[in-house]
Design a protein that fits this description.
364 residues, binds pyridoxal-5'-phosphate, alpha/beta
Length: 364
C-alpha cells in the first residue's frame, strides 16, 4: 500500500537524533516554555524571514490568537474561504466573529477579486489560506491591505516553505499562522503551532494570550488560553526536523514535477500550481468527474488518497448554529469539492512508488 503519509519511514531516519533530544529535554527538568521554545521560535523566525515567532499548542490556536492579537472581536466580519481545514473557520467562530465566505479560483484557492468585493462591503479582517502549499498572490494581498486598511492573517498551515515570486507566504499580512500537526510539511510528534509576525506588539500580545493572558508572573491583564508549545516538541522541531525541511520541500517539488509530466490521462486533470507560486506541495490535487469511482480505483490498486475537502465549511452541520455570510455563490468551491482528490506526495515516497501512482492514474 502506498500511503498518503508514511511516518514510520521518517522515524527510521530520525530515531537516533530524536532519542538524543528526548534524553536532553528530559534531563533538563524544564518542560514548558523554556529555552527550547525560545530557540525554536528564533530559528523558525529566521527560516521564515520574519522578526518574531510565538509557539502555541496548534494551528487552530495560532489563527485564533493572531486574530485576537490584531483586535478581532465578537461581531467582526472575517473574509475567508469555504474550502479549507475546518480549523480556519473554527478560529473565527470561537471568537464570536462572523466568517464571510468567498468563492475559490481555478486552483481551489480563495479568489482575491472576490475578497476585494467583500472587503469593500466593510469586513475588517481577511483570513486567506495558502491551500495545498500553493502561494496566493502576495502582491495582491498587500494591495488589499493598503486599499482597505484591513488586518490580514495568512493561514500558512499548509505552506511552510512556499513562496510567491521569492517572498515567503506569511510575509504579506499582519501575521501568519502555521501548524505542526504531524501530516504538515513541518510536522511534530504531536500537536503544535506558531504565529509569525513582524509586529513586535502583536507578538507580545500573543505571548500573553497563549499563557492565560499573563503579562508578568501572576499578573493577568486579559483572559487568555492555555496554548503553549511543549519544550519537547520545540526541541524536536528545532534540532531534528527543521534542518530537514528544505530537503523535504525539494523532494515534494520533484514528485509534483514527476506527476505533472507523467500523468497523461485526460480523465485525471492536474491543475498544477498557480503562476508565480513556488509551491511547497503539501498536497497534490487532481480533478476527476467521478470521484467515488476514481477513489475506488486508487484503493483497489493500493494507492492511498485523500479529499481536500469533500464538504464546504458553511455546509458542515456545526455551522448551522453559527452566524456566517457568503459574499457570492460558492459554486466553484462546490464543484471543486465534488471532483478533487489528493494523490500521495510525502517526501519518503520512492521513485518507483511515484511512477506506480502515475501509472495507476493513467490506467483509470
Ligand atoms: C491543519 C490546518 C489547520 C489547523 O491546524 P491544527 O494544528 O490541526 O490545529 C488550519 N488551517 C489549515 C489550512 C490546515 O491545513
Amino acid at each position: 500500500m502506498i500511503q498518503a503519509n508514511d511516518f514510520r519511514r521518517m522515524w527510521a531516519e530520525v530515531e537516533t537524533a530524536a532519542a538524543e533530544v528526548f534524553r536532553e529535554v528530559g534531563a533538563s527538568g524544564w518542560y514548558i516554555l523554556g529555552k527550547e521554545v525560545v530557540q525554536f521560535e528564533q530559528a523558525l523566525a529566521r527560516y521564515w524571514g520574519v522578526a518574531s515567532c510565538v509557539g502555541v499548542a496548534s494551528g487552530l490556536d495560532a489563527i485564533e490568537i493572531a486574530l485576537r492579537a490584531l483586535g478581532c472581536r465578537a461581531g467582526d466580519r472575517v473574509v475567508t474561504t469555504p474550502l479549507s481545514a475546518f480549523a480556519t473557520t473554527l478560529a473565527i467562530v470561537k471568537l464570536g466573529a462572523i466568517p464571510v465566505f468567498v468563492d475559490v479560483d481555478e486552483h481551489g484557492l480563495i479568489d482575491l477579486e472576490r475578497c476585494r468585493r467583500a472587503l469593500g462591503r466593510g469586513a475588517r479582517f481577511l483570513l486567506p489560506v495558502h491551500l495545498y502549499g500553493h502561494a496566493l498572490d502576495l502582491d495582491r494581498l498587500r494591495a488589499l491591505r493598503a486599499e482597505f486598511g484591513c488586518r490580514v492573517v495568512e493561514d500558512c498551515a499548509q505552506s511552510v516553505g512556499a513562496a510567491w515570486k521569492g517572498q515567503a507566504t506569511g510575509s504579506a499580512g499582519d501575521a501568519a499562522a502555521t501548524s505542526f500537526y504531524p501530516t504538515k510539511n513541518l510536522g511534530a510528534f504531536g500537536d503544535g503551532g506558531a504565529l509569525l509576525t513582524d509586529d513586535e506588539a502583536v507578538a507580545e500580545k500573543a505571548r500573553a494570550l497563549r499563557d492565560y493572558g499573563q503579562t508578568a508572573k501572576y499578573r493577568h491583564d486579559v483572559l487568555g488560553y492555555n496554548s503553549r508549545l511543549d519544550e519537547l516538541q520545540a526541541a524536536l522541531l528545532h534540532r531534528v526536523l527543521l534542518g530537514r525541511l528544505a530537503e523535504w520541500t525539494r523532494r515534494r517539488r520533484e514528485i509534483a514535477r514527476a506527476y505533472l509530466t507523467t500523468i497523461r490521462n485526460p480523465k485525471v486533470r492536474a491543475p498544477g500550481a498557480p503562476e508565480g507560486s513556488e509551491s511547497c506541495w503539501h498536497l497534490f490535487p487532481v480533478l476527476v468527474d467521478d470521484k467515488a469511482a476514481f477513489l475506488e480505483h486508487l484503493k483497489s490498486n493500493d494507492v492511498g488518497a485523500g479529499e481536500h475537502y469533500p464538504l464546504l465549511i458553511p455546509e458542515q452541520r456545526a455551522m448551522e448554529g453559527s452566524a456566517w455570510e457568503s459574499e457570492c455563490s460558492l459554486e466553484r468551491a462546490r464543484a471543486w469539492s465534488r471532483s478533487q482528490v489528493s494523490l500521495p506526495i510525502h517526501p519518503y515516497l520512492t521513485a518507483e512508488e511515484v511512477a506506480r501512482v502515475a501509472a495507476v492514474c493513467n490506467l483509470y
